[in-house]
Amino acid sequence: MVPEIAAQIVALNNNGRSVRYSAQHINIPRSTVQDALSWFRETHGFTRRPDLIIADQQLIEMTVFCVFLYSPTVRRRLKERGLSAKPPATGPRLTVGHRRARREFAHQYVNWGDNEWKNVLFTDESRFNPRSPDGCDKVWRRPGERYSQCCISPRTGCNGGSITIWAGISLETYTDLVFVENGAMTAHRYVLECVESHVVPYAPFIGENFIFMDDNARPHMTRIVVRYLEQVGIRLLPWSANSPDFNPIEHVWGFLGKRVRRRQLRPETLNGLRVALQEEWAQIPQSYIQSMPNRLRVTLNSNKSAF
């Protein structure tokens, strides 16, 4: 048995936990728990194997005594080590290929300024439900570790019904909300309800340098969508897969969700949620949109695990 497990067994025993509880908590046999406790009572050691030496004795001390520490003491010690409690970032798990593509994308566009980004319409879909979390979860992390895998809270499905919406934003304004109802988003629906109805009319507002950004969702990348964009002369911004943190509309979705949750009468039904989303979307401050130039710089300068 490794010393860390033995130390955890002793800590649980000192905290009044039974052998059965310790075995279930650590997922080991009860006989192993009893052996570890007997050995510790006889020798005050954590292992029978002399070849297993813990380089840092503080690790054992923290394992044994952490259950007795006063919570403000723990927070103070974490802060002294440069950690602070922050809401966990959400997002998909990244493969090596995803990180490579993200890094190449960031390097290619990091030097763009407002003059370039003002030509881009950022679009995305998001799902909301009346029982969405309030965003009060926290993780302890150092500066630059926002998108480290250990600091990300994986997204889960919506229970109790949900509403999917699509929209687009640019540095100067944003489109109307599109409610994706009566089924999932398909390529035909994406062309008719989103691109043809909102993206094409929006292009002249930006001008001849208009660039359309959407992610790599399957309905967005089908032949029918690509051919339609070619026919109407809309240029796409190449987008790296699994990179929601690059898209400024992600922050707008988060802000929109907070506005809905903080309403005096929080919506309890899907119809109420629909009305609340429309009302709050009409009041989105433009300052939440004008963030793309800094986003790539922050990502490039952040911890390497972000890639």
TrEMBL record:
Residues in the signal sequence: none
Q: Which residues form the Tc1-like transposase DDE domain?
A: 120-264
Show the GO MF annotations: nucleic acid binding
Origin: domain of life? Eukaryota
**Matching Pfam families:** DDE_3 (PF13358)
Q: Which residues form a coiled coil?
A: none
Name listed for the protein in its UniProt record: Tc1-like transposase DDE domain-containing protein
Q: Which organism is it from?
A: Tenebrio molitor (Yellow mealworm beetle)
